[in-house]
Amino acid sequence: MKACRGCGNGMLGSVVVLAAASLLPGWAMASVLDGSGDRLRKTLLAPALGLLLLYGLSGTLLLLNVWSPWLMWTAVLASNWLAYVVVNSRHEVVAQRSHWQRLEAAMHGEVAEASDGASLSAEAETQRRFQAERASPMMVLSAAVALLALLSPVLQTLPFGVDWIGFAMLTQQMVVEGELVLSGTNDGFWTYPPAFPSLAGWLSATLGLNAGVAVFHLGHWTLFAVLLGFMGAMDRHGAGGQAVLAMGLGLGLFAKTFDSGYPSVASQLGMVVGVLTLFRPADQRQRYHTVGVGMDL
Questions:
Q1: For residue 164, how many C-alpha atoms fall within 13 Å in the half-sphere facing its CB?
Q2: Contact 53, 29 (CB under 8 A)
Q3: What does each C-alpha distance from 240 to 40, 92, 140, 278, 292 come to in angstroms?
Q4: 218-251 pLDDT tens trace
Q5: pTM
Q6: 119 and 99 Cβ atoms separated by less than 8 Å
Q7: DSSP strands (E only) in 131-190
Q8: I want to staple 212 with a disulfide (CB 3.0 to 4.6 A). Which of 42, 63, 168, 292 is the partner?
Q9: Dihedral sign computed on CA atoms, order 201, 202, 206, 212
Q10: What's the Rg (C-alpha) of the chain?
Q11: Which residue(s) pair with 188 in the sheet?
């Protein structure tokens, strides 16, 4: 595969656009789904949760037959505004706070006055212990493993494998026609899940990228977000660094990504929410946790 002189700058542009569009909503979602998370955990979770939201917005607009790059940007700006409101919404009266806000307050040592105060205090104490006992070298090593996902688009012009050719064709169809309907001798439409090609089409239209390059960049950013997201989700159970090393060095997701199976990797974003919300005692699980997992699936 030929080296790409300008791919590093192109990948940087894609990272900036995807991060700018998704990090604040991802931070807000991390706050709601896990009120016990500190800044490090939310930083790890935000790329995955925000990217999952972007996929959901883009796919939904396409299913509603109203997708366009401009309408997608409108949805992105609206989600960022809503995320800002959620992150900065605070109530002085404890009874008016949501469960995640009360848990967040308990993590900062505030006395819980609600009926579930004992449960919140116990959960907060457990999470404070996990955060204090983090293995920093392991976390740094895991982050380095995750960064390997971004290396290939910097060094190569186009991805390995052949699946990306089909995804690029669908992405170009989105940019030109705004839909996945195929014209020619074979009439009909693709029944393929719409989120990946439509989001790649938005990225392509935003930066003026070749469709194949947009697919390439989005696929590898997705792997990076998945790895960081699993690190953040398992950090809630005291095993963030260890989990990523076990998953990342097993090469399963890496192999799928480097063979251009990007939508299969993107489907793992929902598992980040599942691990974060469902792997917890029943008394700590709220209804919106289960609803969130159901929406992701």
A1: 24
A2: yes
A3: 11, 33, 11, 16, 22
A4: 999 999 999 999 999 988 888 888 877 777 565 5
A5: 0.82
A6: no
A7: 181-182, 188-189
A8: 168
A9: negative
A10: 20
A11: 182
